[in-house]
Amino acid sequence: MSVERTAERPMTYFLQEAMANGLDAILARLDRDMGSRPYFELRILPELLLGHAIWDNGDMSSRYLDAFILAGQATGRFHPEEELALLRRMDACDPYEHPFMVTRVLTTSVDLYLREPDDANRRRIDNLIDLICGHLTFEDGCAYQFKSPEGWNSIHDAVFGDFTPYSTYPIGGIMLALARYLEAAAAPSAEALMRKLVRFVVEKSGIFTKEGHYYGHTHSGGILTAAAGMARWAVHTQDEQLLLQMRSAFDWTVRHSSSWGWVPDGLGGKDGSSETCSITDAIHLGLVMARHVDPAYYETIERFARNQLMENQFKKNEVLDEALGLRDNPAIANAFHGSWASWSKPDSLDNALEMLEGCCLGSGIRGCFLVWDDAIVKKGELVSVNMAFSRNSPWVE
To answer: How far is CA 21 from CA 24, 156, 213, in A?
Structure first.
């Protein structure tokens, strides 16, 4: 019996193309008249607009540099002039102009160190850790930015529409960056800080139950970002109990997401929407589980990446471009095509047309890179093809 093969491949198999389109969108979102200052705001409705905001420097410069570093490995495309301009803006920014920004600056500083582990990049991280410690409170063997006097109880008292009361805000991103750094470097001060942050989140914050359950803002509140960081830390320190708790947190996330991968940044709230940053955090946590706990999780991550992450990207569409007036505004069109949605509903991306936040563009590229990086893995003499995405590797295509 013969099997008929379809002539066309699925539209969502080629992660490199998605990343390349994202890089083009970043290039179009750099204000060359202001030294490549990123545009955080991209508005389509009610009128076309590229605009600057507080997030341009510490947040966007870091995220876009992060995207260039990661996507370059997958696509072979490098933009050294833009990288240098973004690095200068990142180094000149005040990471605490808004507390969330320091998490992104640290993340990209770790990228730079992993790419080139020299003294200069290590000093950048050490200086950031000193700055971060100056903004934290240390007590009872813990470190935290914010602690509710009564303790946070996300299962019963989750707050929506505001992420500043969360005990994992903004330390979730700090924890994930530190975990990645400590996998590659012996750094006593970073390790001491990480232990104190983990102890606070697990024992004091009230974000997670003992079973790993939670409600609240998954990305902006730092919950899933912290979970991914603690999962990586648990693997690094061989902490089985913490790893199982974070496995339960991922299972809980999947339980409250769609079967195909729509992850709400507001788990447990009404009328939720999915931010691409949240999907990327969920994918990051799930990949840790797939690689170190149970490879069956790769099936879940492939669904999330193929059916939601990549579908959250805006692609060229002649009918849509005509309807939105993009054909007559190439600057906006170039920034729009390749960007990722900020507030998608399960059946549409319409909410994002009021504002395509620049952070989701960076996170979309990061999410694609994470999946690409784990699609093919070599351990010893064994090469594993974990997910059905296109990737060339030294071992298999």
So the answer is: 5, 42, 36
The long-range contacts involving 78-81, CB below 8 angstroms and separated by at least 24 positions, are 79/23, 79/27
Give per-residue pLDDT as tens, 327-386: 999 999 999 999 999 988 888 876 667 889 999 999 999 999 999 999 999 989 999 999
At residue 2, the pLDDT reads 42
Q: What is the DSSP string of 6-49?
A: PSS--TT--HHHHHHHHHHHHHHTEEGGGTSEE--EEE-SSS-E
pLDDT digits (tens, 9 = 90+) for 264-300: 988 998 888 889 999 999 999 999 999 999 999 999 9
Two tokens at 377?
């893995």
Contact in structure between 215 and 268 (CB atoms under 8 Å): yes
Q: What's the burial of 385, exposed, middle or buried (CB within 10 Å: 0-12/13-18/19+)?
A: middle
- Measuring CA to CA, which residue among 379, 179, 363, 191 is closest to residue 282? 363
Residue 1 has pLDDT above 70, yes or no: no
Q: 49 has which bridge partners? A: 43
Say if CB 274 and CB 264 are below 8 A apart. yes
Do residues 205 and 144 touch, judged by C-beta distance below 8 A?
Answer: yes
Could you write out the DSSP letters of every residue in 185-215?
---HHHHHHHHHHHHIIIIII-SS-TT----
Residue-wise DSSP of 295-319: TTHHHHHHHHIIIIIGGGB----HH
**Angle of CA points 126, 130, 134, to nearest 5°:** 165
Specify the pLDDT at position 105: 98
Residues 265, 226: Cα–Cα separation, whole Å: 14
> Would the pLDDT of 316 be above 60?
yes
Three-class secondary structure of residue 380 per DSSP: coil
> Quick one: tokens of 160?
């929506």
Q: How far apart are the first and last CA of the chain?
A: 28
Q: Name the pLDDT band for 8 (thresholds 50, 70, 90).
A: low
The answer for residues whose C-beta is within 8 angstroms of residue 318's C-beta and 6 or more apart is none
Q: Which residues are CB-contacts of 290 (< 8 A; sequence separation ≥ 6)?
A: 296, 297, 298, 300, 301, 374, 386
Instruction: Tell whether pTM > 0.85.
Output: yes
| Tokens linked to 86 | 């973004």
Q: Reduce the DSSP state of residue 137 to 3 states and report it.
A: strand
